[in-house]
TrEMBL record:
This is F-box associated beta-propeller type 3 domain-containing protein. Residues 2-103 form the F-box associated beta-propeller type domain. It comes from the Eukaryota. InterPro entries: F-box-assoc_dom_typ3, F-box-assoc_interact_dom. NCBIfam families: F_box_assoc_1.
């Protein structure tokens, strides 16, 4: 995965997500509180209908870039691109516990 800024020509190659799965969905956002860009990557279960692992990569720090696992207690399947507002990522998803659509948000 590469993040590019076409106006400056700069790019950054991200480390590989720690997973054996091939299906990965990623979202990009900005946390104004910590003044850092973050990438959320989700891998899919074998059936491909629910997210399995959630990992976050924080950009702009002084150390080595590395993914960290986060817990998500809702089995869900994203249905839209996300939007990051004030450091919170929002996206539409099917939430299986409620058997309906919902808005998922991750801090």
């Amino acid at each position: 995965m590469v993040i590019c800024n076409p106006s400056t020509g700069q790019s950054l190659t991200l480390p590989k997500v720690k997973t054996r799965r091939i299906d990965v969905t990623s979202f990009f956002g900005y946390d104004p509180i910590d003044k850092q860009f973050k990438v959320l990557s989700m891998t899919w279960s074998r059936c491909g209908r629910t997210t399995e692992q959630h990992q976050v990569l924080t950009l702009g720090g002084t150390g080595k870039l590395s993914w960290r696992m986060i817990e998500c207690s809702l089995r869900h399947y994203p249905q839209s691109d996300g939007i990051c507002i004030n450091g919170v990522l929002y996206y539409k998803a099917v939430v299986y516990e409620f058997e309906r659509y919902g808005i998922v948000f991750l801090l």
